[in-house]
Specification:
With 140 residues, the chain is an alpha+beta fold. The protein has two helices and six strands, in the order βββαβββα. Helices cover 24% and strands 26% of the residues.
Length: 140
């Protein structure tokens, strides 16, 4: 579990993870967000779902490599992102607290990486402090 307060809104995430074939597998992510007053809850939920994909990609696979001070990935085909088959089920609860309006642009990103790492740490009994998790070797 992890919480965040991005853009004047509140977000909380819970991740269910396992380790399979030496890599972290995220099965489900639950996100609760409170952006204050909500104009269109379905659009907020859609925004949180897509932001969850960004957060998962960051914590699981994204990394930038440099050679001689220049990025190796000069185009999208060389930059690793989360493949669609590794995307878990995402469950979103939009809470309308009546607080002042906060932002909804990618409010689902900040709580995802720590939620995944916290779940993995609880599962494995040790802390992981660097992203992406693909840099670690997870024996079964």
């Amino acid at each position: 579990m992890a919480t965040a307060a991005p853009f004047g809104s509140l977000a909380a995430a819970i991740a269910e993870v396992s380790v399979e074939a030496g890599q972290v597998v995220v099965h489900d992510i639950w996100q609760a967000v409170d952006p204050g007053m909500v104009v269109n809850p379905r659009l907020v939920a859609a925004q949180v779902q897509s932001a969850t994909a960004l957060g998962l990609s960051q914590v699981l696979v994204e990394h930038a490599e440099y050679e001689n001070g220049e990025p190796v990935a000069r185009n999208y085909d060389l930059y690793p992102i989360l493949p669609a088959e590794r995307m878990p089920r995402v469950h979103v609860k939009v809470i309308e607290s009546g607080a002042p309006i906060g932002g909804v642009g990618e409010i689902g990103v900040p709580a995802v990486p720590p939620a995944v790492v916290n779940a993995l740490s609880a599962l494995r009994g040790q802390r992981y402090r660097n992203m992406p998790l693909s840099q670690y070797s997870f024996g079964t």
